[in-house]
Amino acid sequence: MKRHFSMLRDFQLADWFTLANAFCGTGVIFAVMRFVQEGHRGDLLLGMALIPLAFVFDALDGHVARWRKASSTLGRELNSLADVISFGVAPASLGYACGMRGGWDWLVLSYFVCCGVSRLARYNVTAEGIAGEADKVPYFEGTPIPTSLLLVILLAVAASSGHIGDTLWWGQWQLGPWQFHPLVLLFAVSGSLMISKTLRIPKP
């Protein structure tokens, strides 16, 4: 007879670090929604602070899994789903909160998230083949999605100096029916680097 919450009992220690990563990413989204609704900059900065914390949990789950020799397919899939939230959807929502709210901005931010999803899906499918007999992936194809932390740091500097909303760096353009903020192109570049097949980064 299967017991209630049996899946939670089957989680390894590393999986709980992964869930903490997802928890932080979800917290970012809630903080952004409250900022957009109420306009308190503290909520925005709180959301930005949760991304580095998610990054720490993301780094720790891999170390814990190797330390306990408890890597699993479930853990890998769980990690990818958590990363989509914390380093895909959450940074995009922060970009929106900082002022990238034009129609063209929406398209670029959505492209960024889709690139992150595609990159993680490709990694999950190809990781075992790349690892070979060493059972360790020697390199990343494309930049890892946690590199979006760099975008968050940039947005945090902008927010701390008051350059968000109407005063967002690089201004805004009116292109046809929609507004476009040139700063959003950094998200486009980040997303494109994630899905690159020719860019190979040695994995530590």
From TrEMBL:
Annotated keywords = Lipid biosynthesis, Lipid metabolism, Membrane, Phospholipid biosynthesis, Phospholipid metabolism, Transferase, Transmembrane, Transmembrane helix
Look up keyword Protein biosynthesis and say if it applies: no
Q: Which residue windows are coiled coil?
A: none
The organism's superkingdom is given as Bacteria
User: GO: which molecular function terms?
Assistant: phosphotransferase activity, for other substituted phosphate groups
Transmembrane ranges, per UniProt, are 12-32, 44-60, 178-196
Membrane topology per the entry is: Multi-pass membrane protein
Respond yes or no to whether keyword Endoplasmic reticulum is given for this record: no
Q: Where in the cell is it found?
A: Membrane
| InterPro entries linked | CDP-alcohol_PTase-I, CDP-OH_P_trans, CDP-OH_PTrfase_TM_dom
Quick one: a GO cellular component term? Answer: membrane
According to its UniProt entry, one GO biological process term is: phospholipid biosynthetic process
Where it mainly occurs, coarsely classed, is membrane
Question: Which protein family is it in?
Answer: Belongs to the CDP-alcohol phosphatidyltransferase class-I family.
Which protein are we looking at?
Answer: CDP-alcohol phosphatidyltransferase
Organism lineage string: Bacteria, Pseudomonadati, Pseudomonadota, Gammaproteobacteria, Lysobacterales
